[in-house]
């Protein structure tokens, strides 16, 4: 059934304390709870309902007297006194058979939990909703050497540990870990002088992969003090790496649990991209301690309150640690690839949804990434100082509370005196605004005329104008900046802004730093683009101009069989060989737009995309670029000197340019350079980069075997091995390759990383997934049908591969419809997958 934001009512009881005892057993863990409830005077509904799923009730009592609660949909009900009372219950659960990886489960012999969003109800009967916050004491009995939970340790004996978390928290932040683990210890002294014990806990054998994550954690703790004035608040902070994990990581209070792929790092096994991602995710989960934990969400509709804000915070952190320019371009690429894609299809939804069936289906690019863009726009509109003041007020006012987007915005209205009512529409209105711009030039005045429209999305036909901050700068004809970045605040459907007193007509640089999550449509010729590419002071704009040239070239090749545009080839040569520019930036300019991006662009232009044609055009352009730059490639390819690897922005930037050059070089030299790099590399970035370059040139068979032989015992590296083969398979081979890999002895659909390594890669291989045979559609559907009963969350998430189906021709649409209907007809299909597939089909 559907849950609506407008139906929110507070729970009838507050909780004064929670005491839990776990007696661990793989198939028969006992959970004993003792919870002190009291009537909540702020609530009108006094029904005593506790969530509970897949629990075997052994006994229950109220104030010491045994009771038999009534079983109702999703939990139990009982009659309770109209005064404070103590609820006690004992339940039995089976972690070992829990393949959904939600609640308490086992992974490689260790116990772990994942409670967000609604997993705690699979641990014990409880009001499993974020607005019920309580202080927990947890006793764990088990023969594992390491027994962890939230908060501070209070007792440690043989086979028992007791933890107390003094900070009231909702149940979704509960965590427990037990196993044979080894810690990488360190400590951090907070700015007020409190010493905090830090640990990263891993399985034996992984202890040499913790140092980088630990440094990232300490940098995050310092950054949150310096930038937001936020200090850590417990004596200990633990991180645990778990192999089987549905998401990236989880911010449980004082006990963050990570997908091992998002914390374990070493030069030999991790790529530069892995290092960067690990640093960002460690920061993200740490930052949740204030934005999410100390102040949490009133209900799950407010998910973006913690996620959008925390993503924004981790993005700024990464920018400070590395390069803001490069980081911003990467963010925009991700936003467009995932969030714009989502906004353009049947799964489009507001950053704050108004209804859901299964909340796990709303941990989306829209909630996370567009949610972060909203924070960035707010800050740009009110300025850095007011932003910091508003945050301080929010933290002061709501510490220990479960709040809403309205509460968040009210803090900024108060410190700025601004009315944010129109701005708030960013949270409620789905879809990507289209911003059209034209220019008029008269008597030394340049006028920029804008119109905005947002296309209809499911359930939202009519759209209102949004508040759009448009960052603009003007570049004079000689290449000098005549007007530095100015933020235009658009609030109407149509609006013009004039810059006066200009000597000669300048070129406008519009939407600098990608100041709003919109699609800018602007008449601009290749010469002007090349001019901005050469002279703009804004790195995002420079990259954007190169990207537009590349896209137009590819579209013309696809639609008109045109030859690659010389303007594009000359422009990239100029940037890529410009030794004065940051190599990381040059590598980004070197990259081509993705096939999926081109498919959407064609569709938006009223052309039905042909995936094979898109693939062929892109391959042909790759060959042209390689030949055009053949003289420069050998100097651009600069392998890291053995023994000098560092995983920082500088080293990583150099390698990304070098490897981009290598992938072109492999098309010219028969793979000679890549083969030798593969044999010599002392780091995974270059070893995998060399293999990737070979595979995308149709080579690398023996290297692939060597890679497997070398890394067969490393799960995370083997994920790369699986992914690379599917990702680089030719369009007519992709389904075959993925199918064959699904029979490899190391394949299992019980490990989400491994499943994604193969089938996530298949759906990301655009021409392979959409091959005219329909083989990949059928294979993915088969896999999703068999995964659903094991792991509904991953199944539902991966069904999003079909969200773009309405772009394609009738044959493909017909084949996809058949597969979606086949999935939907599966007996006992999960609520998660049913909701997703129905929404996709309703397009
Ligand atoms: N709160 C986690 C994070 O963003 C994500 C957990 C999502 N879990 C889920 N089952 N949907 O850091
Ligand atoms: Zn988060």
From TrEMBL:
All copies of the Peptidase M1 alanyl aminopeptidase Ig-like fold domain together span 431-522
Location of the Peptidase M1 alanyl aminopeptidase C-terminal domain? 527-841
Which GO MF terms does the UniProt record name?
alanyl aminopeptidase activity; metallopeptidase activity; zinc ion binding
Domain of life per record: Bacteria
What's the EC number here?
Answer: 3.4.11.2
Please identify the protein, giving its name as recorded. Aminopeptidase N
Catalyzed chemical reaction(s): Release of an N-terminal amino acid, Xaa-|-Yaa- from a peptide, amide or arylamide. Xaa is preferably Ala, but may be most amino acids including Pro (slow action). When a terminal hydrophobic residue is followed by a prolyl residue, the two may be released as an intact Xaa-Pro dipeptide
Which keywords has UniProt assigned to this entry?
Aminopeptidase, Hydrolase, Metal-binding, Metalloprotease, Protease, Zinc
Task: Report the cofactors.
Answer: Zn(2+)
Q: Pinpoint the Peptidase M1 membrane alanine aminopeptidase domain residues.
A: 212-426
- Stored InterPro entries: Aminopeptidase_N-like_N, Aminopeptidase_N-like_N_sf, PepN_Ig-like_sf, Peptidase_M1, Peptidase_M1_dom, Peptidase_M1_pepN, Peptidase_M1_pepN_C, Peptidase_M1_pepN_C_sf
Which GO biological-process labels does this protein carry?
A: proteolysis
Q: Which residues form the Aminopeptidase N-like N-terminal domain?
A: 90-173
Q: Which family does it belong to?
A: Belongs to the peptidase M1 family.
Say yes or no: keyword Disulfide bond present.
no
């Amino acid at each position: 059934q559907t849950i609506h934001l407008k139906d929110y009512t507070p729970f009838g009881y507050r909780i004064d304390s929670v005491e839990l005892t776990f007696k661990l057993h793989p198939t028969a863990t006992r959970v004993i709870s003792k919870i002190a409830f009291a009537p909540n005077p702020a609530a009108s509904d006094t029904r005593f309902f506790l969530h509970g799923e897949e629990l075997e009730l052994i006994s229950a009592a109220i104030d010491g007297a045994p009771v038999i609660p009534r079983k109702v949909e999703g939990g139990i009900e009982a009659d309770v006194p109209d005064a404070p009372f103590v609820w006690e219950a004992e339940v039995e659960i089976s972690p070992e058979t829990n393949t959904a990886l939600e609640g308490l489960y086992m992974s490689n012999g260790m116990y772990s939990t994942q409670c967000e969003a609604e997993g705690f109800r699979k641990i014990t009967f409880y009001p499993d909703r974020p607005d019920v916050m309580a202080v927990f004491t947890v006793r764990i009995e088990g023969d594992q050497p390491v027994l962890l939970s939230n908060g501070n340790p209070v007792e440690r004996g043989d086979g028992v540990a007791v933890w107390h978390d003094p900070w009231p928290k909702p149940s979704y932040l509960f965590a427990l870990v037990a196993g044979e683990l080894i810690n990488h210890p360190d400590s951090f002294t907070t700015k007020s002088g409190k010493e905090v014990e830090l640990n990263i806990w891993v399985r034996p054998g992984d202890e040499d992969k913790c140092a980088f994550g630990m440094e990232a954690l300490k940098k995050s703790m310092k950054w949150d003090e310096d930038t937001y004035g936020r200090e850590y608040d417990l004596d200990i902070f633990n991180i645990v790496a778990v192999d089987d994990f549905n998401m990236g990581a989880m911010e449980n209070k004082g006990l963050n649990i990570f997908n091992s792929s998002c914390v374990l790092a070493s030069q030999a096994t991790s790529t530069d991209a892995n290092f960067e991602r690990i640093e960002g995710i460690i920061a993200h989960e740490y930052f949740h301690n204030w934005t999410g934990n100390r102040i949490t969400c009133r209900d799950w509709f407010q998910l973006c309150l913690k996620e959008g804000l925390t993503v924004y915070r981790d993005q700024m952190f990464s920018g400070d640690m590395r390069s803001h320019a490069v980081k911003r371009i990467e963010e925009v690429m991700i936003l467009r690839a995932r969030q714009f894609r989502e906004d353009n299809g049947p799964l489009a939804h507001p950053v704050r949804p108004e209804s859901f069936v299964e909340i796990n289906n709303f941990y989306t690019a829209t909630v996370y990434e567009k949610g972060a863009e909203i924070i960035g726009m707010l800050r740009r509109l009110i300025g850095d100082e007011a932003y910091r003041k508003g945050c301080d007020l929010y933290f002061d006012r709501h510490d220990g509370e479960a709040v809403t987007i309205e509460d968040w915005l009210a803090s900024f209205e108060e410190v700025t005196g601004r009315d944010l009512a129109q701005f708030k529409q960013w949270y409620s209105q789905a879809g990507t605004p289209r911003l059209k711009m034209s220019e008029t030039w008269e008597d030394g005045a340049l006028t920029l005329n804008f119109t905005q429209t947002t296309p209809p999305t499911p359930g939202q036909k009519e759209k209102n104008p949004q508040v759009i901050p448009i960052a603009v700068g003007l570049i004079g004809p000689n290449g000098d900046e005549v007007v530095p970045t100015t933020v235009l605040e658009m609030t109407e459907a149509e609006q013009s802004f004039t810059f006066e007193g200009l000597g000669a007509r300048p070129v406008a640089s519009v939407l600098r730093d990608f100041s709003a999550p919109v699609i800018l449509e602007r008449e601009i010729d290749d010469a002007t683009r090349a001019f901005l590419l050469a002279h703009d002071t804004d790195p995002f704009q420079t990259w954007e101009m190169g990207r537009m040239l590349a896209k137009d070239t590819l579209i013309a090749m696809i639609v008109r069989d045109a030859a690659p545009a010389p303007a594009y080839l000359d422009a990239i040569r100029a940037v890529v060989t410009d030794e004065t520019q940051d190599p990381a930036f040059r590598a980004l300019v070197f990259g081509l737009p993705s096939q999926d991006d081109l498919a959407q662009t064609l569709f938006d232009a009223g052309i039905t995309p042909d995936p094979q044609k898109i693939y062929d055009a892109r391959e042909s352009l790759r060959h042209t670029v390689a030949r055009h730059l053949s003289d420069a490639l050998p100097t651009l390819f600069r392998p890291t000197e053995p023994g000098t690897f560092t995983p920082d922005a500088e080293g990583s930037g150099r390698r990304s340019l070098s490897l981009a050059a290598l992938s072109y070089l492999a098309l010219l030299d028969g793979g000679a350079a890549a083969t030798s790099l593969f044999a010599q590399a002392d780091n995974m970035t270059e070893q995998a980069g060399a293999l990737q370059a070979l595979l995308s040139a149709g080579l690398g068979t023996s290297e692939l075997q060597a890679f497997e032989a070398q890394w067969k015992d490393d799960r995370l590296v083997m994920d790369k091995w699986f992914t690379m083969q599917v990702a680089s398979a030719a369009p007519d081979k992709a389904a075959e390759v993925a199918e064959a890999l699904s029979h490899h002895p190391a394949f299992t659909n019980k490990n989400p990383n491994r499943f994604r390594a193969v089938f996530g890669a298949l759906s990301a291989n655009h021409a392979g997934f959409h091959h005219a045979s329909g083989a990949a559609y059928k294979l993915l559907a088969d896999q999703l049908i068999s995964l659903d009963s094991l792991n509904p969350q991953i199944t539902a998430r991966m069904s999003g591969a079909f969200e773009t189906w309405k772009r394609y021709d009738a044959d493909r649409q017909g084949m996809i419809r058949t597969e979606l209907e086949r999935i939907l007809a599966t007996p006992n299909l999960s609520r998660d997958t049913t909701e997703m597939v129905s929404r996709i089909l309703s397009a």
